[in-house]
Amino acid sequence: MESSFTPLEGGCDCRYLRYRLEAPPLFVHCCHCRWCQRESGAAFALNAMIESARLAVLEGQPNLVHTPSESGRGQEIARCPRCQIALWSHYAGAGRLIAFVRVGSLDEPDRLPPDIHIFTASKQPWVILPAKTPAMPEYYDRQQYWPAASLERFAALAPQIQAYRRERGL
Fold first, then answer.
1. pLDDT at position 150, please?
2. Parallel, antiparallel, or unpaired for β 27-31 and 45-51?
3. pLDDT for 85-101, tens place per residue?
4. Is residue 145 part of a domain?
5. CATH classification at residue 151
6. Residue 147 Cα distances to 79, 102, 114, 138, 141, angstroms
7. Are strands 75-79 and 45-51 parallel, antiparallel or unpaired?
8. Alpha-helical segments (H) within the chain
9. Integer CA distances (angstroms), 98 to 22, 48, 123, 133, 157, in order
10. Model pTM?
11. Quick one: which of 77, 73, 75, 97 has its CA closest to 87?
């Protein structure tokens, strides 16, 4: 899939900050947890998970804003310093090694539909999930749902993630 992947670009509303996904995402989560609902102001958050090394900032520089998270360890949200649009997040589990890109900030968001719906136990009752996309009441087992290529890429990053977690006592 990577060899046929056409990079995806995106950015903020004011066009100050532009970025590119230089590889397919590892996986695309549609999260229905109450935290994501509150943070996004919508029924769910749609995030494309990718190694930060494969996320290129083309123009501008984001502000990384530390915000609370349900885990209690917080997250950093990359926002445009001018229009304040959230473009991606870094969660405490992998820090800045992994980015969760807001799919709606892509120029072609329709190219990244969700691979899985998570935390559906708290989804809004009027949201109808497609039958062909896996849906989990809480989280899921990565080994069961991710494609082999994504598992390999994640495994290559695992030593760095483990070192990050050790440094922070996670």
1. 97
2. antiparallel
3. 999 999 988 999 999 99
4. yes
5. 3.90.1590.10
6. 30, 21, 14, 20, 12
7. unpaired
8. 34-40, 142-145, 148-168
9. 14, 10, 25, 23, 9
10. 0.93
11. 77
